[in-house]
Write a structure and sequence with these properties.
The protein is built from 13 helices and eight strands. The protein is of the alpha/beta class. α5 crosses α6 (169-178) and α11 packs across α12 (283-294). The radius of gyration is 23 Å and the shape is elongated.
């Protein structure tokens, strides 16, 4: 369903997955029929060759995809909201991609449910709609009839997940190969997000934190960081809580996990060596803490950044 602030990227993902006939991947020999719904029923310039109808047609579909919105503060049209509510009442499956979750939230369809969106907008979604259980650490949240995805490329994870639900894992995996994308990832796998750095640290604190980042391979204590900030350990801890919203050891742990991610994404270094380089000591320790923080093992995480072999034709 196209809306006033629709974003092209997620529209393109949905069109590629659901609008291209790949019935040869389906065990039933069937595939999706894509209809682009616009408020006035006129073709949208981004997808001019796709079948088009007005919003009222959505209630007769099996599934509705709501793309992301470029302006999360903009009010969705009453026509769109009413259409989504009626479609949901009639049992239509509704999926929101990225910030499209704000549209579903405005319609009240996420109340009392677990939902996700782009991690940069998750706090805003939770603050504006307190009845939603917002998780910023999921690639997608599947409530059966209502599904939401995290930011940007996680929309593809969700679309592949829906293909898997409808036609089986073999179809979803076959499609991922054709798209040269990572194989189906679990919705519980954490978003590959970078926590915003609060910034604004005092000069002494910034010096200490920069030193710690440069020496993650070593054993680092609160006292070590405090000395480089010319503070006592107690003073340093108070300043960390004020200026980074974290304790020194929690901050240090986040930096070690972030370093492990960087090395897994960009190098072929062994997990054992990565554990040493980020200060985790052993591969066993790294695997435990990495899984707790990210939701998958280091090996699975690395595989997500390795292009799938293009062994299938588009």
């Amino acid at each position: 369903m196209m809306h006033d602030t629709t974003m092209l990227y997620e529209v393109a993902i949905a069109t590629e997955v659901f609008g291209v006939d790949r019935a040869d991947l389906s065990p039933t020999g069937e595939w999706y029929e894509l209809i682009v719904c616009t408020a006035d029923g006129k073709p949208h310039p981004w997808v001019p060759t796709e079948s088009t109808a007005d919003y009222s047609a959505a209630a007769n579909c099996d599934s509705i995809i709501v793309p992301s919105t470029a302006d999360t503060s903009a009010d969705a049209s009453e026509y769109l909201i009413a259409t989504l509510r009626e479609a949901h009442r009639q049992g239509v499956r509704i999926a929101a991609l990225c910030t499209g979750a704000f549209v579903l939230a405005a319609a009240g369809l996420l109340d009392g449910r677990v939902a996700t969106t782009h991690w940069m907008h998750a706090d805003d979604l939770a603050a504006r709609y307190p009845l939603i259980d917002v998780s910023a650490s999921m690639l997608y949240a599947d409530n059966g009839d209502i599904v939401t995805s995290a930011g940007k490329t996680a929309a593809l994870d969700l679309c592949l997940h829906l293909v898997g639900r409808d036609f089986g894992a073999a179809a979803a995996n076959g499609l991922s190969r054709r798209l040269v994308a990572p194989a189906q990832r679990s919705g519980g796998q954490a978003q590959y997000m970078i926590r915003p750095h609060p910034g604004g640290e005092s000069a002494g604190l910034a010096t200490a934190l920069d030193w710690a980042r440069a020496n993650l391979e070593d054993v680092i204590t609160v006292g070590d960081m405090a000395r480089r900030a010319s503070l006592s350990s107690r003073q340093f801890t108070r300043r960390m809580k004020t200026e980074t919203l974290s304790t020194p050891l929690a901050w240090l742990h986040q930096q070690r996990i972030a370093r492990a991610r960087e090395l897994l994404e960009s190098t072929g270094v062994s997990v054992e060596r990565i554990a040493q380089l980020c200060g985790m000591g052993t591969a066993t320790t790294l695997r435990r803490h990495f899984h707790q923080a990210v939701g998958v093992s280091p090996t699975v995480y690395r595989a997500s950044f390795t292009p799938a072999a293009p062994n299938d034709q588009p």
